[in-house]
Design a protein that fits this description.
The chain starts with a strand and ends in a 24-residue tail after the last strand. The strands form 3 sheets. It has a 7-stranded mixed sheet with strand order 7-6-8-9-10-14-15, sandwiched between helices. 40% of the residues lie in helices and 19% in strands. It has 12 helices and 15 strands. It folds into 2 domains: 192 residues, Rossmann fold (3-Layer(aba) Sandwich), CATH 3.40.50; 175 residues, Rossmann fold, CATH 3.40.50. It has 376 residues and is an alpha/beta fold. Strand 8, helix 7 and strand 9 form a beta-alpha-beta unit. The longest helix is centred in the N-terminal third of the chain and has 20 residues.
Length: 376
């Protein structure tokens, strides 16, 4: 029987190579498991893979190739909002379906996207409440210069100021700038003396910033950098000894204590090496591929409308906990967590929600006051 052809569009090179390679590895592992179990309705899954090299324009061109020349209807891909925004017009014009596994800034809906990463009400607000409670009221914002950092920092500012906190600095850096902006920013952080730095810097620039922060003598145990994106893989690249005490909010850490998580970690490392970092980047990509398989088994076709209808309402026990695709907005119920880096490069989970949180990408629901976010 003819295989089910799908597209995979994750960068294995460029600024986002670490996190998007993890997306790729999680997707590949899931496809191997699916095919090893007999495929879907007796047909194997055949991936068509491209490396967009972290360049939004190349994502767009390769999405066109997948949906046009390669005859693919479904794409697993993108990580940054810049890359998602680049492919969105192509996906909608050609009526394809994008499975998008990255946390993002929210405030978007497309009938042609299934959003399986965290929305702001599943990471940002909990992190803000935790930082104010545990570290103090003054926060410094630094981000890469594109939509995700600017919108995420806007939300962070609104929440912090609504709770009586103060933003004592806000600065943005171009991705992959030829000049190094971080020494000047480090000096400004020293002058502003915030209790915590909230970073939405991504990719190679984030790694450079964390290294320089350590070299400048800051103590993350006392004055940490907090992030939504800095996970186990990049911690390994930077050097765990530089990162002990830094904070990340995410829907999954490799240290989640459940049989499903331990089984996933074991299979992932059996496939990619005993020292392979296991993070939210690979876990959500792995999980969405299994959700896709369940949807395709229901629908029996890669037709976008029928496959999407089959996906909405799907419920799956992922390594990070129960995932459910919300029919109202195509986003996914996830369990928020906050972790602190330890000496081995893994995370101690210092807070987690009692269960999965309904996605609210437009923040339409009334927000709990202050630290009530941490009681959910």
């Amino acid at each position: 029987m003819e295989p089910w052809r799908i597209g995979i569009l994750f960068s294995r090179s460029g600024a986002m190579e670490v996190t998007e390679s993890e997306h790729f590895f999680g997707t590949a592992l899931a496809i191997e498991e699916i095919n090893g179990s007999g495929g879907i309705l007796g047909r194997s899954v055949e991936p068509v893979c491209y490396d967009p090299a972290s360049e939004p324009g190349l994502y767009r061109k390769l999405a066109e190739r997948l949906l046009g020349e390669d005859g693919v209807d479904v794409i697993f891909g993108c990580s940054t909002s810049a890359s998602r925004k680049a492919v969105l017009p192509v996906i909608e014009r050609r009526n394809g379906l994008l499975w998008y596994p990255s946390l993002y800034e929210g405030f978007e809906y497309s009938p042609n996207i299934i959003y399986t990463g965290a929305a702001p009400n599943q990471n940002s607000v909990q992190l803000a409440a935790y930082l104010l409670q545990e570290y103090g009221s003054t926060i410094y914002l630094i981000g890469s210069d594109y939509i995700y950092p600017r919108e995420t920092n806007r939300l962070m500012r609104e929440f912090v100021e609504s709770q009586g906190g103060e933003i004592v600095g806000e600065v943005y850096v171009p991705i992959g700038s030829d000049t190094n902006p971080f020494p000047r920013i480090i000096d400004d952080i020293r002058r502003a003396a915030p209790k915590v730095i909230f970073s939405t810097v991504v990719g190679h620039d984030a790694q450079a910033f964390y290294r320089l922060y350590s070299d400048a003598g800051f103590d993350p145990r006392r004055q940490p950098i907090a992030s939504l994106t800095m996970a186990e893989g990049e911690i390994q690249v930077i050097g765990p000894e530089r990162c002990v005490g830094h904070i990340t909010a995410g829907s999954y850490f490799g240290t989640v204590k459940s049989d499903v998580s331990r089984g996933y970690v074991s299979r992932y490392r059996a496939r990619y090496g005993a020292d392979a970092p296991v993070s939210m980047w690979s876990e959500v990509a792995y999980s969405q591929a299994h959700l896709f398989a369940a949807a395709l088994e229901r629908a029996g076709t890669l037709d976008t409308q029928r496959l999407t209808e089959a996906a909405l309402g799907l419920d799956w026990q992922a390594p990070g906990g129960r995932m459910l695709i919300e029919p109202e907005n195509h986003h996914t119920w996830l369990t928020p967590r906050i972790g602190r880096v330890r000496a081995d490069g893994e995370f101690d989970i210092v807070w987690e929600a009692k269960g999965p949180v309904r996605p609210d990408p437009y923040l339409t629901c009334s927000a709990p006051a202050g630290n009530a976010w941490l009681s959910s």
